[in-house]
Amino acid sequence: MSFCTCGKRGDLTFPLSVQFFCLECFSKKFERRFLRNIPRSVRGHSLVIAFSGGKDSSTLLYILNKYRKKLKIPVLSVITLDEENPTTQKSRNKIIDISRKRYPNVSFIQFSYSELFGISLPKLVLHSDRKKMRFTPCTICGVLRRHAILQLALEIDADYIAMGNTLNDEATTVFLNILRAKPERNIRNEITYNTANGRQLPNRIKPLARFFEETIRNYCAINEIQPVKTNCSYENRSLRFDINSFLLTLEKKDPNLLYNIVSSGRKFKTNNTKSNIVMKCQKCNSYSTRHECSACSLVRKIMT
Ligand code: SF4
Ligand SMILES: [Zn+2]
Ligand SMILES: [Zn+2]
Questions:
Q1: CA 208, CA 160: separation in Å to the nearest integer?
Q2: Same domain, yes or no, for 27 and 92?
Q3: 122 lines ligand 1 (CB under 6 A)
Q4: Beta bridge partners of residue 301, listed in sequence order
Q5: Is the CB of 140 under 6 A from ligand 1?
Q6: Are residues 273 and 160 in the same domain?
Q7: Domain total of the chain
């Protein structure tokens, strides 16, 4: 039998660690690591969580709410986007109802793609497929989601956006960028965008980016965080899904490989930090690096 540092029975461990922990110490250690991943600059600033209701964003909400005072977060909000996909809609609405009750001091903002872009994701996918365009549903969904989260965060004056990306997600992204021959995309996080009147756009933080999926699942189980499994019907059409499965196989062989992939991605970032001034999209008036933002451009290509 293994023992925790506190003397109790050790039930759980972290990947790449030989130390076992009791449930309580595992949870505390998880939270300490999580808090270390939050930059000090976040203190005193408003923060919004991109919330899907899955285990990662549910963990974000749970810990950020628990340590809100310590982190000095004056305003904590949640943005949820409804793609209007019937396979995910019901379970997502359910978790939002539960979370609203569980976190009464957090403000919840919810918009559907139809409200924001005038069309639902299933309809966009249908049009794109009919025209035999090469956009996967996740590409369309991802472009619209990134755009919507940034614009909504700006509307509510959030200084930071907390994303639920895990180590597996980060490694998958690096891999995807390499497969698409666009390794320079890994530098995006290093660029700061300022509006013409000097306002800096909200920065993204990823407190779970060094955590394995399995570790997060264990934390959720200990703390009775009951996320929904959204099971999006489009998931297995994306390359991300295939790479994620492949990386899970690699992770079983050697968990270090995932850290190595992410570190390789970071190497592309070196010496590429720069500051860009953003302009307004001529169609939707939102901030963009081009005259037509990526969301408007994508919807136009699909619908015309
Ligand atoms: S699986 Fe793809 S299409 Fe479905 S919600 Fe996620 S990103 Fe969107
Ligand atoms: Zn212990
Ligand atoms: Zn636009």
A1: 15
A2: no
A3: no
A4: none
A5: no
A6: yes
A7: 2
**3-class state of residue 113 by DSSP:** helix
- Tokens 């003397």 belong to which residue? 7
Per-residue pLDDT tens listing for the chain (304 residues)? 899 999 999 999 999 899 999 999 999 999 999 999 999 999 999 999 999 999 999 999 999 999 999 999 999 999 999 999 988 888 889 999 999 999 999 999 999 999 999 999 999 999 999 999 989 999 999 999 999 999 999 999 999 999 999 999 999 999 898 888 887 777 655 555 666 566 778 999 999 999 999 999 999 999 999 877 777 899 889 999 999 999 999 999 999 999 999 988 877 755 545 556 678 899 998 888 888 999 999 999 999 8
The CATH number given to whatever domain includes residue 174 is 3.40.50.620
Q: Same domain, yes or no, for 70 and 98?
A: yes
Query: Do 146 and 199 reside in the same domain of the chain?
Result: yes
Query: Could you tell me the distance, in angstroms and rounded to a whole number, from the CA of residue 73 to the centre of ligand 2?
Result: 29
Nearest-CA neighbor of 161 among 151, 170, 172, 173?
Answer: 151
Neighbours of ion ligand 3 (CB under 5 A): 281, 283-284, 293, 296
* Angle of helix 239-253 versus helix 256-267 axis, rounded to 10: 120
Bridge-partner residues for 109, per DSSP?
79
- pTM exceeds 0.85, yes or no: yes
- Domain assignment of residue 6, given as a range: 1-36
Whether ligand 1 lies within 6 angstroms of the CB of 53 is answered as: no
